[in-house]
């Protein structure tokens, strides 16, 4: 992204002046509250003075930033948001996270739609059940008594929110909905719903969103500007430079952003824990591990709300440092080909563990591993009884050290007797001390989330929305490919196999994916791909069937003799119980594969990956992260800055030399 040209610099303040000239009258959110508190409008002179004051402050801040630090800033545009980024890495920004932000916007749009549908379904359910026992409904009796005591003057207002001098502040009415109507009644006891007089309808308030680690505020700005029906977006950061940059970018994006987004300087953990169940959506996107934020995050989400969490410490989650992963997430990872999916399941198990401490539980909606990070979207509910099912959703993993065989050990089980359900520990062990296929020992990992990590109904809705609004997503190609692959995954099969690893164990040539999938399908089992690995295959077939298929393949494609103690030799020494049928099956290709839809796309540019933490000095050793051109540009700027200082000091040194001589 190039630096801002002078001509564009002159146009931007003019554009901002025009955009902000109507802030006070059109999009100021506080005008809605002021209307409810008082029907007496302020005088024209006071409004004019306030408008001029807001306008001057806005223009002063922007002009000061643009005039004094013009060469240090560049404009970055993503979606409908534009931000000013400092060239010296003061605030973190990573272009590669556009995939993360796009898929989050798509999920939020679906969440708002689903939330509305659920609310309407609850209202219709209540409406059907209300006439059955009207006499026993104490809430209706209370309402009737209050109505009888209401003075006649209140009925003449038709639901207007009026404020008189003799009315106490507790009796005044406030409305949090952006679309305030004159004929709506104000009810201070209802926090999330507005009652409309006459029809008895209830409208939900727009969802409140918390971006707990905002940095430049780009994500919050995109939420506010691109998602229809979203409410207040609160951006929190513990870094002063980040908060200043976020506030500057809020002003830079005009009236829509100024009316919806607010920035606070605070520790995200403290802010979330002091606002329990206040936000419908909480977004965690830290630099590294989210583990320290999870406990406060699950408390801050409202019942039925959404927690969106990113983790970039993939080396830890994938088994590079198993003891570190256990200390952060409470699970031990295994270094198999499925390690990236296991990382997703470890994070989900950790979130569930934190939620259970407050009688809450999670329902995963979408779980994605892409690029250098993972992203999970879960809904959080409160129920002490439903929380008891958590042990049924967690399992330990036994991974053979000699072959690719793995087995899952559920933590708990249930016994149903009549109408009661007993919760008991799971049966074990599911494996002997030595692998029955190759005779080697097992490594044990976990516990992991072994229940489904996606809701296929949600995935279909998200994908349909993305295709319908493809021009709204800068990373449409990538996120549509990922969502398409996820929509074809087997939802109830944890982890996956690698066909190449199976063949490497047996030292044989690899069958094509179509042939192998056909053999599994012809054996009566299901099989699918995975979005995590283009070579991965999910199947509900047991390992004995998988190895029988490979034994039949090797019989038709012989291999060279191997030492008898090798795992491959031990596996091939056994005769197959199942005779595999390699005839091509109809379902051997998924719908996307049959239509030749791209599912795994290359990176759009070089050095597409993680970036330096904000505040760190960029040096030549960071060339692998940023690229040679970016490194040269930064180093040249440093040299220019260093050359300017000696010039200012040169006359002094010359004078000193003359005096000494």
From TrEMBL:
It is an enzyme of class 2 (transferase). Keywords: Metal-binding, Methyltransferase, RNA-binding, S-adenosyl-L-methionine, Transferase, tRNA processing, tRNA-binding, Zinc. It comes from the Eukaryota. GO terms for cellular component: nucleus. One of its GO terms (biological process) is tRNA N2-guanine methylation. The keyword tRNA-binding applies. Belongs to the class I-like SAM-binding methyltransferase superfamily. Trm1 family. PANTHER family: N 2 ,N 2 -DIMETHYLGUANOSINE TRNA METHYLTRANSFERASE, TRNA (GUANINE(26)-N(2))-DIMETHYLTRANSFERASE. This is tRNA (guanine(26)-N(2))-dimethyltransferase. It comes from Cicer arietinum (Chickpea). The lineage of its organism: Eukaryota, Viridiplantae, Streptophyta, Embryophyta, Tracheophyta. The gene is LOC101510842.
């Amino acid at each position: 992204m190039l630096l801002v040209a002078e001509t564009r610099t002159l146009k931007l303040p003019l554009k901002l002046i025009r955009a902000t000239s109507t802030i006070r009258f059109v999009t100021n959110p506080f005008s809605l509250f002021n209307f409810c508190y008082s029907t007496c409008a302020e005088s024209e002179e006071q409004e004019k003075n306030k408008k001029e004051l807001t306008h001057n402050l806005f223009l002063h801040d922007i002009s000061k930033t643009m005039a004094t630090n013009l060469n240090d800033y560049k404009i970055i545009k993503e979606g409908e948001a534009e931000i000013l980024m400092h060239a010296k890495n003061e605030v973190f920004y990573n272009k590669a996270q556009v995939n993360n932000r796009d898929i989050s916007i798509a999920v939020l749009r679906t969440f708002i739609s689903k939330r509305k549908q659920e609310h309407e379904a609850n209202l219709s359910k209540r409406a059907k059940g209300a006439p059955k026992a009207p006499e026993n409904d104490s809430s209706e009796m209370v309402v009737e008594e209050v109505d009888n005591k209401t003075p006649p003057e209140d009925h003449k207002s038709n639901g207007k929110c009026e404020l008189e001098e003799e009315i106490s502040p507790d009796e005044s009415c406030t409305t949090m909905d952006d679309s305030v109507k004159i004929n709506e009644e104000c009810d201070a006891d209802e926090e999330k719903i507005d009652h409309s007089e006459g029809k008895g309808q209830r409208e939900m308030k727009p969802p409140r969103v918390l971006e707990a680690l905002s940095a430049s505020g780009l994500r919050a700005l995109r939420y506010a500007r691109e998602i229809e029906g979203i409410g207040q977006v609160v951006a929190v950061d513990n870094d002063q430079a980040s908060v200043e940059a976020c506030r500057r970018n809020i002003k830079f994006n005009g009236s829509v952003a100024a009316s919806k987004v607010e920035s606070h300087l605070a520790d995200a953990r403290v802010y979330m824990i002091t606002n329990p169940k206040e936000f419908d959506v909480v977004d965690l996107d830290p630099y590294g591990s989210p583990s320290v934020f999870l406990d406060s995050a699950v408390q801050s989400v409202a019942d039925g709300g959404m927690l969106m969490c990113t983790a970039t410490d993939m080396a830890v989650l994938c088994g590079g440092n198993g003891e570190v992963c256990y200390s952060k997430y409470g699970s031990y990872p295994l270094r198999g080909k499925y390690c990236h999916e296991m990382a997703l399941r470890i994070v989900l198990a950790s979130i569930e563990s934190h939620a259970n401490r407050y009688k809450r539980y999670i329902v995963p909606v979408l779980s994605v591993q892409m690029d250098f990070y993972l992203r999970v979207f879960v809904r959080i509910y409160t129920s002490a009884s439903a929380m008891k099912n958590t042990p049924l959703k967690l399992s330990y993993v036994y991974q053979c050290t000699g072959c690719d065989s793995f087995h899952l050990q559920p933590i708990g089980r249930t016994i149903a007797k009549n109408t009661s359900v007993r919760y008991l520990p799971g049966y074990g062990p599911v494996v002997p001390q030595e692998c029955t296929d190759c005779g080697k020992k097992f490594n044990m990992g976990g516990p992991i989330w072994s229940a489904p990590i996606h809701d296929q109904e949600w995935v279909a809705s998200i994908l349909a929305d993305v295709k319908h609004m493809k021009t709204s997503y800068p990373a449409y190609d990538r996120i549509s490919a990922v969502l398409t692959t996820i929509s074809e995954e087997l939802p109830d099969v944890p982890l996956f196999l690698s066909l190449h690893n199976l063949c490497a164990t047996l030292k044989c040539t690899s069958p094509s994916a179509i042939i192998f999938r056909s053999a599994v399908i012809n054996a009566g089992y299901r099989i699918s791909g995975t979005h995590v690995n283009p070579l991965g295959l999910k199947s509900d077939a047991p390992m004995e069937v998988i190895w029988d298929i490979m034994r039949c393949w090797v019989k038709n494609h012989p291999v060279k003799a191997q030492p008898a103690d090798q795992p491959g030799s031990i596996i091939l020494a056994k005769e197959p119980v199942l005779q595999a049928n390699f005839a091509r099956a109809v379902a051997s290709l998924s719908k996307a594969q049959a239509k030749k839809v791209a599912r795994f796309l290359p990176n759009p540019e070089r050095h597409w990956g993680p970036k330096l933490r904000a505040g760190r000095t960029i040096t030549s050793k960071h060339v692998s992260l940023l690229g040679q051109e970016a490194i040269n540009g930064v180093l040249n700027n440093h040299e220019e800055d260093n050359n300017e200082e000696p010039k200012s000091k040169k006359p002094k040194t010359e004078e000193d030399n003359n005096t000494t001589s």
